[in-house]
Amino acid sequence: MLWHELTIHTTEEAQEMISNLMYEAGAGGVSIEESGTLNKVRDTRYGELYDQPLNDIPEGEAVIKGYYSESVSMEEVLAEFTPRVEELRGFGINPGKAIISWQTVDEDEWAHAWKQYFKPLRVSERLTIKPTWEEYTPTHPGEAIIELDPGMAFGTGTHPTTALCLRALEKNITGGEEVIDVGTGSGILAVGAMLLGAKSVLALDLDPVAVESARENVLLNRLEDRITVKESDLLSLLGGEGAADSAAGDMWPSARPGHTLSDSNSHNEPVSQDSLGVTLPVKIVVANILAEIIVLFTDDVYRALQPGGLYITSGIYKDKEGLVEEALTKSGFDIIEVSREEDWVAFTAGKR
Ligand SMILES: C[S@@+](CC[C@H](N)C(=O)[O-])C[C@H]1O[C@@H](n2cnc3c(N)ncnc32)[C@H](O)[C@@H]1O
């Protein structure tokens, strides 16, 4: 399938407004690349595994790409989009050079293009993420390797939120824990938890593309006996009291705006608890999802945990830290640790 790819070189300051403008002009998807996006974790903490910069976007700038179906007239898109970018200056938002170009791309090539930037990455003391197509020999004692092909799912390990969750898991898994990973994406946190010593993991995601990717990665790491992947949210899984709770039941669907999901199990229908691979309540729940969604299910997480259990959560942009802290506290959690990387925050919270 062919797509039109509209590219603009702009500023980090304008990136959110510009991606909205791209959607308003009919984009089916938008990607944002900031300076050094893919290599910061590696550089800041664990030294150089690779010395090649992963992108050469200057500090403070961003490259935004919008994807339009082949049938869309790009002349019309440009006629709508270009003046609106310039209008931003009038609102005090600087779009920088605002260099705009477009080309037609083949979906297959585009779907695999990112692979050249994804290299083995030592993400924590013990965990290294290895793309399946790269050669890698462990370099230090006790190093565990996550074999990964994320496909189109989120979760390469290069995003600060994934790294923060993996490090928090490493800090808190002592061996034998049962874990639920809500919003598993590529399955990276589920596999990481197992390699760190968990007994079993139940990995949930609402997106069927993520579920398929997570299942593939579980197989790649030969953990199919210990990780169960389900297309579900947490509330559907818990059923009973939570599913009957009208407040949560009303709020949950709005927690997934814009999801391209089959939603086969996202209407809070209880999931059979026979084949979960873990016994509720569990010792650890990890969820790397946006703050706006996290705050909607802190009560459910609390119910899913044993007393003394831990909730590790990220996906929280820095300006939403207070919102999540308040929701965690309100649900009865004690905040044990707050960690930060770049503009992102992770919480480790404990159930009394
Ligand atoms: C940011 S990705 C995290 C992927 C991976 N766990 C990581 O840490 O890199 C968030 C994932 O959560 C899923 N998701 C969003 N809302 C959800 C919900 N309410 N229940 C389960 N999964 C959800 C999305 O489909 C997406 O795959």
Automatic annotation (TrEMBL):
Residues 261-272 have a biased composition (Polar residues). Its EC number is 2.1.1.-. It holds the Pfam family PrmA. Residues 248-272 are annotated as: Disordered. GO terms for molecular function: protein-lysine N-methyltransferase activity. One of its GO terms (cellular component) is cytoplasm. The keyword Methyltransferase applies. Keywords: Cytoplasm, Methyltransferase, Ribonucleoprotein, Ribosomal protein, S-adenosyl-L-methionine, Transferase. It is found in: Cytoplasm. It comes from the Bacteria. Its main location: cytoplasm. The keyword Cell division does not apply. S-adenosyl-L-methionine binds at residues 162, 183, 205, 288. One of its GO terms (biological process) is methylation. It catalyses: L-lysyl-[protein] + 3 S-adenosyl-L-methionine = N(6),N(6),N(6)-trimethyl-L-lysyl-[protein] + 3 S-adenosyl-L-homocysteine + 3 H(+). NCBIfam families: prmA. Methylates ribosomal protein L11. Belongs to the methyltransferase superfamily. PrmA family. This is Ribosomal protein L11 methyltransferase.
